[in-house]
Amino acid sequence: MAEPILVVDVGTSGTRVALVDGDRSGLIREPGGATYVWPSSVCLDDTGYLVGTAAERRKRAIPRRYIDGPRRAVDAQASMWLENHEVTGVQALAAYLTAVHTEGQQQYGAPIHRLTLTTPADYLPGDPRRDVLVAAGMAAGFPDVELVSDAVCAALDPETGSGLPAGGLVLVCDLGATWTTAVVQVRGNHTTQLTHQASAAGHDLDALLINDLRSEGRAWIEPLLAAPDDAGLRAYYEAIDFTRRLKHQLADAEEVADHLTPLTPPYRLTRDWLAAFAEPALRWLVASCLTVVQEAGATPEDLSAIVLAGGGARLPMVEPALRIGLGQQIRTSAEPELAVARGAARWSVGAATRTVPADRPRWRIEPVSWEIPGAVGRLSRWLVAEGHSYQAGEVVAQVRTPDERVFDLIAPQAGTLLAHRAAVGDHVGPVLVAAAAKSPKALAEQPPGHRQRLDVVGSWLLAPDRQRLVECDAAGRYVRVRGVDDGAVVGELTPPPGDAAPRGGQVFVGPEGRLCLVAWDADGWVSVWELESGTLATRFRDPSTPENVLVDEAQWRLATEAEGKVVGRYRRSTITTWDLRTGDRLDKVTDDAWTRRNPGYAARSGSDAFATSATCPDGQLRLVAGETADGTAVLVVHDVASDHEVLRVQGSPGQRVRAGFSADARQLLAVWESDDRSVVDVWDL
Amino acid sequence: MSGTSDGTAPPVLVVDVGTTSSAAAVVTGDTTVLVPEPMTGAATWPSAVFWDGQQMLVGTLAERRKRSDPEAFAAGFKRGLADDTSVLLGPRRFRPVEQVVAVLSTLRAEAERLHGAPIHRAVLTVPASYGGLGAGGDWTEERGDEERSRLSGPGTRACGDLSQSASQHSDVRRTRMVAAAEAAGFQTIELLPEPVAAAFAPIAGAPFRPGDLVLVYDLGGGTFDTALVRIGVRWHEVLGHAALDDCGGHDIDALLARRISTDGQQWLAPLTSAAGSSTPATLRLDMAVTDFAQRVKHQLSDAAVVEDFLMPNTPAYRMSQEDLSTLAAPLLSRTATCCTDLLARLGVPVHDVTAALLVGGGSRMPAVADLLQRGLGLPLRRVVDPELATVRGAARWVPVSGQRRVSARTSPEPTVPLSWNIPAGGGRLLRWLVSPGQAYLAGVPLARVRLSSGAVWDLTASSPGTLDRLLVPPDTDVTAGDWLALARP
Fold first, then answer.
1. Which residue from A527, A520, A513, A504 is spatially nearest to A468, judged by alpha carbons?
2. Among all residues of chain A, which has the CA nearest to that of B403?
3. For an engineered disulfide with A375, which of A430, A565, B176, B337 has Cβ 3.0 to 4.6 Å away?
4. Domain B405-488 belongs to what architecture?
5. Which helix or strand (DSSP H or E) is residue A207 part of?
6. ipTM strictly over 0.95?
7. Could you tell me where in chain B the CATH 2.40.50.100 domains are found?
8. Are residues B414 and A366, on separate chains, in Cβ contact within 8 Å?
9. What is the homologous superfamily of the domain B12-203+385-400 according to CATH?
10. How many CB pairs under 8 A join A and B?
């Protein structure tokens, strides 16, 4: 089910495109272009739209029909005029994406139906401009359009975003035409942008440079710009490109000089001047970083990474300013303008993992559905309230159709309505569904879904809260705490190996309901571990190496039973009692009747919610776990209201069974024990 | 309730609440019984109320009392339903919807007395101009393509501003009519556009056939309404409608009353001066002249010339059909223009229209038929009692419009609902990846959603099954835990 995905980052001046196929991804070059950056230009020729380099080439001939940055119209939520053609943001962007789509399919060699489009960090959920982006993507022939924030992508850029802890905070400075700061919480498919700020600082810097060019070269540039018709506009576009070029060259040189046209005098720009021009923008950047970090409830020290991305990251003075301003190391890649596209590609590689499995159907609920005449209607009222029963032929609800007819929705058979699932006044259709209780007969015919079977050499305990299932190794080498719903391990305790061989282990419920592992070894050492904290609560030694270990949960005491001396014809057991809070020895007796006299002491927890009978927390089901006449373990579940048997499960010979319901009444659990192992079955109710 | 399992049809009260007069009928199966006004025995009830200080009197009772206290009397309140601003009836204020409730309660009580059992279900006829089905309404978005193209056709544009305003919310007048009927004690209320009802009325001669285009010409007491309907079997489609709110039979009565006042100045003047400065007396005299004008007009429906007396001691007043025609001509020609404008706006040539159906009490005037024949050149069709056309038609529609019982679907195999714990609580369902009837394996993506963050997630099957029904169409906002489809495991 790996579908190819085209990833497009449409920036104001440059666009980056990547192709994702399964787990492989790569940036793609514009046809004829030498770099991975496609000019974000659109030109409306008489033959139609030209985009990218083709548009750049035509702009000198028809400058009035040229726009750079088709997304700007979307940003501003306004139309653009290409000479006398009004072009909306959707049209311009769709034209651009169509060309990218065509090229992408050409290079891939097969159709591509899915698009990942990066969105400016300030297009928050609910912003109508997001709908425009989706509409443009669909108009360009992609049925599925996914949007990801630029900031999220920059944080996910594999070149700078490796080794981040789950849940780590990343500060992103994305310096394109718009400068954006954002804090992103990285958590795989759930990576989210927490805070952001944007400014036109990048634009302003370019404007300062243009103004400087115009004042320095007033004598020669003003006549060019003032030229009539298209010539002036042409010169203006040239001047913009010219200053951008100079700015980029200063990344490697202290000073650059160039000529706008072969006939004009040189214009010089030094790194110092650039730094002076950039100073206000940098001040904003550092202040904004501190603000977004603070708004995210963090400090710069809490950040897992600070990522500098976008073409502006190449300005030599940016990185030092940030490093000093925030007091942290800055991560930036060799090609920062590709960061967003690379991150978006990484996001898209994960598309196949962004899946949600369907909820487990509820055993005792069944849908009752009615076809709405004319397929559409408005629910006018429910005549049977939630939780109430109805008879066969009874009117359950009424629906008003658009022609104002009112239809009665009739119950096919008697039952109980559990949930309406649509409110009065809701538009309903083509089908209206309500949740009804399944009849005991149907329950008996359709057994509940068996979710899983868990197996251990040892024992199982259903915690008294009936939300946790505790798996305990027979020798006490490990304990795993699992959720009752999915059996997922939520906690695990493995005591460090001691000198002697482990002999046994049981989980008991200690003071304040704390789950504790009581484990003992061949040397007679008894250790008590608290599962929640993983700490050793107490440890003591009975040098007589006990045969049996019993715990009194109410008093929180432990008794060791060891084979005692031979007295006459008898070999008498010796009982030693211990305080589990302190590990102190309390008493030592030799008494055959001790266990009978002290029934509070048991080899297993008396608080175990696995029992031989139980009633479901919702009061609707009752279980009995026992034996048939021939001694086979059997679990029987009855519907309380009707006393109908709705489930019967038999065990294998030699098994004993106990069972229980989960606290939310969603699961039935049974534990089948034989001499050496025990098995838990979980059913969804 | 509204349906009984033993098969006998429950009674339905059909009500035409008009601006000036109302009518009702009890429909049981195929049988229709009109509910007569108990005071007069007539089939129509004046849409009039009178607050006597303790209770609201309705119909002729109210009419009779209006002379004693004209300020506690009101009629024509149906016009105020849109604004629903309260008016003073004697010492108390009443909203128009409360006045409608009074009328409906009285009709219901009388109908139940006649029927001998409670009546829980009502069908109310409403003007076609009440937004909703004919005028776009807020159903537009959910209709099928066929329906949508019809709604965007010329028929909707005819309604102009109305369909625009109605496209956001259902017309408040429809909601108020339903609320009024609920307040009057009905449990189930259906609304039927008046021209649709009228076109179901039994007509003299051959009935209309499906596909016929009929121009309903409804000259009521207070308003004139016209609509072009396409005849169907269970439903007539309103292609367009137009109305003149100041052009009813009562406006002709008022013209006539003014004519009588002018003509009878000689003998009326002394009466007026005798009434003197007493306001109630002047009001009473005006009412008497208006009632007299109505009486003269009604007699002219059958007689060429009428001679009648306002009071036993006043001289005879004489009027001919021609006089009345001349008097009513400007008003009637406006109704004809309204009809031709409607057809022009709908782009329907006159010769495509099968007939004009004359309904409403005002259409009894012979001048109407003359004018329509001349002005429109359409064959005219009539009903026996034009003022009862709407209620009779609605009564006929009840049995032909199909039963209202929908049994739950039963399937031999059990179905289970599919729901997902969608991240972030929900999103927009983009599309289904599996269609009904298709089998799937565990783990297969069934649907695709876009979260509010923009991320696209696939909703997968947790166990194998066959998709049975989709409960939510694509492009719908869905919430985690919603039942989105039914499946057979």
1. A513
2. A407
3. A430
4. Beta Barrel (2.40)
5. helix A201-216
6. no
7. 405-488
8. yes
9. ATPase, nucleotide binding domain (3.30.420.40)
10. 173
